[in-house]
Design a protein that fits this description.
The structure holds 2 protein chains of 2 kinds.
Chain A: E1 3-8, H1 15-31, E2 35-40, H2 45-52, E3 56-59, H3 70-78, H4 87-94, H5 96-105, E4 113-117, H6 118-123, H7 130-137, E5 141-145, E6 155-157, H8 163-171, E7 176-181, E8 185-193, E9 196-197, E10 201-205, H9 213-217, E11 222-225, H10 232-249, E12 254-262, E13 268-274, H11 284-291, H12 296-309
Parallel strand pairs in A: 1-2, 1-3
Antiparallel strand pairs in A: 4-7, 5-6, 5-7, 8-9, 8-10, 8-12, 10-11, 12-13
Helix pairs in contact in A: 1-12, 4-5
Chain B: H1 2-11, H2 15-18, H3 39-46, H4 60-67, E1 74-75, H5 88-106, H6 116-128, E2 139-141, H7 143-155, E3 161-166, H8 172-178, E4 182-189, E5 192-193, H9 195-207, E6 212-217, H10 231-244, E7 247-251, H11 267-271, E8 276-281, E9 293-296, H12 299-313, H13 318-329, H14 333-358, E10 364-365, E11 373-377, H15 384-393, E12 396-397, E13 399-400, E14 413-417, H16 423-448
Parallel strand pairs in B: 1-12, 3-4, 3-6, 6-7, 7-8
Antiparallel strand pairs in B: 2-9, 4-5, 8-9, 10-11, 11-14, 13-14
Classes of the chains: A alpha+beta, B alpha/beta.
Chain lengths: ~325, ~500
């Protein structure tokens, strides 16, 4: 029996989802006979961690603070082992722009993009370069906040006149946004558990039009297929790419890598990596694990074991690039 | 990547978010029956769900709205009355009176249609608004919300048409959806629902061989727009439904909370109760916690609703019915409503002043003569659902306009509540909203090379209804209603 704190909730826009993930993780750990303390993350986080003195901390937070290395940094300072990636990998993954630049440097294909912060537009006249960007990326262009972990703030600009509004929307979520070439194709996700790729999950939209508002803001228009129905070589390639991303970004424990399979070219590109994949009943990681024969409780136990086994004396934050 | 990002988000969504889906094709690797917590469980339950659950939607917006309840947030998103001004001593005295006089009965079931003494109180409330009714005709319900549910239960088969206002009360949307209604929204302006547009829509429906079952309206201090249907439109609406033999559901939670202007007759009183189903509630004049509302309308309809209520909950709480009856017996309910009106009037004025001070000429808003809400419309390039994320960073919240539409409209509007928070918080909350809006406007100006935005939604205000103003997002205002009219701005 291990004393485990589960961090959930918090103040990010994904609080609601995190509470669901956290509750499910807590249940699994309790079923496994552990001593579990659920903590809804707030001002008293450090205090509560010090009071309860867990042997290991399960981070089930999504979005800001939980996924961007902030909470991980605190846990490093407290000397408490925690699940998932270390500080540096969290920083690299939480910011899509940093992640994509690392991928580019490592030769991992990712859709063409440009990224700016508000200052570039307000003080450096970046608006004047928009036509050149539009020319290069071609419409439709995806505009999204660099740091937001959910679909919130993602807009599709189909023409030049839609770009400013899309940028304004994306800047609602953070200081940095990216304009990205739209890939028309299939949505794939590969979860990686301790350096091993799990079966590929495909998200199949139930509606044809990817762009309409309803589809973005309403749930229930997507179904998930796992393992994805792909040619064997595509599956292998997707899993290889995911493992490359995992290594390049320095992930640990568990992560999920999102990819696109281009309909026209058959090319695979990587969109982003998530260091804290969702753990709800319908999340992709649990589905992938299950397809690999790993039931949910076992998955959670393994993630905890990985955290306990990780050598925290060689700080994960110094470099995840091993 | 569009849909992938979506999938990412949905992957994290909750069971109730996705459980409306049909089971996934069994292409997933099948294994032997495992322990309880598997995603296959979800499919097992999903296979049992009724078809109607597919349209019982959850949304990213709902998740966002959950954040507005954080205690470090100034929430202008609520719709709550201020119950803090109700004296605890009065509460204690009333409860003592209930205990002494009606202990056993208040702990007992009651009649489905409600306690006779409460129905007397309801007649009193309605008389206060100039609507004479007989207490025997009243159906007491568990809040006004139950009336919406019972009317749908009585009238709506899947695919039936409900005609509502645009924007409409966001809380009615899930009810309409759960009965699988096809909702058509009619634009409004400063004088309420556009009856000309309503008639055109009814004609079109008739040509299509479809007959709407009822027209849902909040004619007085509408939620969320804050507007009030003018007397000529009320008369015309009643004429239209009488000619066409359609029903109206008149939702009137705020009628007694008038801060200026002359009271207007209810649709129910104009119609005489032939085609209008009236919805009233104690929520805004006393307490939403007592969960008591009522309905009055054509007898055959009320009888079916009564049967529907028996099925739903047998009867509303006897305890709170005795509480309300005892409260009315103390004879001070009008005084309390009066005191609420004073509080809310001041808060409304504070909010209107704060809006004028903090929002630029590219925004406009309604000037409610009563009720709890102001509807603000920003330039069309600002999406208030996204803006809410930025506002939450500044610890302030509102309801994005989309919540009041089923068709994706309302993106640039927001609903602000002024009843639930104090004057200082209203000032500060609106100041913060003004700040985030200003940032967005400036950013847009930078992006488009126009530091002042050219297309302003606030057009000069016509005194006559203008057919071109069918777009509800830009509720036009007459002089006396104008928050910031073009001439002022």
């Amino acid at each position: 029996m291990t004393r485990i704190a589960v961090l959930k909730g918090g103040r990010s826009l994904e609080r609601h989802v995190s509470l669901k993930s956290g509750a499910r993780v807590q249940d699994a750990l309790e079923r496994r006979g552990h001593d579990v303390i659920g903590i809804d993350v707030g001002h008293d986080l450090v205090q509560r961690l010090q009071q309860t003195a867990p042997e290991v901390v399960f981070v089930a937070l999504h979005g800001r603070d939980g996924e961007d290395g902030t909470v991980q940094e605190l846990l490093e300072a407290l000397g408490m082992p925690y699940t998932g990636s270390g500080v540096s990998a969290c920083i690299r993954c939480a910011d899509k722009v940093i992640a994509k630049n690392h991928m580019l440097d490592a030769g991992i294909p990712t859709p063409d993009f440009f990224a700016f912060n508000e200052t570039a537009f307000k003080e450096l006249g970046a608006a004047d370069v928009l036509p050149a960007i539009e020319e290069r990326l071609q419409f439709p262009i995806v505009v999204k906040p660099a740091g937001q972990g959910s679909a919130l703030g993602i807009k599709f600009a189909r023409a030049a006149k839609e770009v400013p509004g899309a940028l304004v929307a994306a800047f609602s979520y953070g200081d940095k946004v990216l304009l990205e070439r739209h890939v028309h194709g299939r949505d794939l996700a590969v979860s990686v558990l301790d350096g091993e790729a799990l079966p590929v999950v495909e998200a199949v939209p139930r509606e044809e039009d990817f762009y309409d508002f309803e589809a973005r803001y309403e749930i229930g228009r997507t179904q998930f297929v796992c393992p994805a129905q792909l040619a064997p070589e595509v599956t292998v390639r997707a899993q290889e790419l995911a493992l490359n991303v995992w290594r390049v970004l320095g992930c640990q424990g568990v992560a999920r890598v999102d990819l696109m399979l281009d309909d026209a070219s058959g090319e695979l590109t990587v969109l982003e990596a998530n260091t804290i994949p969702g753990m709800t009943d319908t999340s992709l990681l649990p589905q992938a694990a299950e397809a690999a024969g790993i039931e949910f409780d076992e998955l959670i136990e393994r993630i905890v074991d990985l955290a306990l086994r990780r050598d925290h004396s060689s700080p994960a934050k110094s470099s995840g690039l091993t | 990547m569009s849909s992938c990002k979506r999938a990412v988000a949905w992957g994290r969504m909750t069971i109730d978010d996705r459980d409306a889906q049909p089971p996934v094709e069994p292409r997933r690797v099948a294994t032997s029956p495992g322990p309880r917590q598997t995603s296959r469980d979800l499919e097992r339950y999903a296979g049992l769900f009724a078809a109607r659950t597919r349209v019982m939607k959850s949304s990213a917006m709902r998740d966002l709205m959950a954040l507005t309840e954080r205690d470090d947030i100034i929430s202008l998103a609520g719709g709550m009355p201020d119950t803090k001004s109700f004296p605890a001593e009065s509460f204690a005295a009333i409860m003592t009176r209930v205990a002494v006089d009606s202990c056993a009965r208040s702990l007992q079931y009651g009649p489905t249609e409600g306690l006779a003494r409460l129905r007397g109180c309801i007649a009193e409330v309605m008389a206060e608004e100039g609507t004479e009714i007989h207490p025997d005709d009243v159906l007491v319900t568990s809040g006004g919300q139950q009336v919406i549910d019972l009317v749908c239960k009585t009238l709506i088969d899947p695919g039936d048409v409900i005609v509502a206002e645009a924007p409409t009360y966001p809380g009615a949307v899930p009810t309409f959806c759960s009965y699988q209604a096809d909702v058509i929204q009619i634009s409004g302006d400063a004088d309420g629902m556009r009856i000309d547009e309503l008639e055109r829509t009814l004609d079109q429906l008739e040509r299509d061989g479809r007959r709407p079952k009822f027209i849902y309206t909040v004619p007085t201090f509408q939620n969320p727009a804050g507007t009030t249907m003018s007397l000529p439109r009320r008369r015309r609406l009643v004429e239209v439904v009488r000619q066409r033999e359609l029903l109206v559901l008149e939702d009137n939670p705020y009628g007694l909370l008038r801060y200026e202007g002359e009271p207007l007759p209810t649709l129910y009183s104009l119609d005489g109760g032939d085609f209008v189903i009236y919805l009233g509630t104690f929520s805004k004049i006393l307490s939403p916690g007592v969960r008591l509302g009522w309905s009055i309308g054509p007898r055959p309809v009320l009888e079916k609703m009564n049967i529907g209520k028996q099925a739903a909950d047998l009867c509303s709480s006897s305890l709170t019915q005795f509480f309300v009856a005892a409260y009315f017996a103390s004879g001070r309910w009008q005084d309390y409503v009066h005191s609420l009106k004073e509080i809310y009037r001041r808060r409304r004025d504070v909010m209107l002043d704060a809006l004028a001070e903090n929002l630029g000429p590219e925004s406009c808003w309604t000037h409610p003569q009563g009720g709890l809400f102001i509807w603000v419309t920003l330039p069309d390039y600002i999406d208030t659902t996204d803006l809410l994320a930025r506002a939450l960073d500044q610890h302030v919240a509102f309801v994005p306009g989309r919540a009041a539409f089923l068709d994706g409209r309302g993106a640039s509007s927001m609903r602000l509540n002024f009843s639930g928070v104090g004057e200082a918080d209203i000032r500060e909350g609106v100041r913060r909203i003004g700040e985030v809006v200003r940032e967005q406007v400036e950013l847009y100006g930078t992006l488009t090379g126009t530091h002042r935005v050219v297309e302003s939604p606030a057009e000069p205000v016509p005194t006559e209804p203008d057919l071109d103003l069918a777009d509800v997002l830009h509720l036009p205002r007459s002089e006396r209603r104008g928050g910031r009219s073009a001439s002022e701005g």
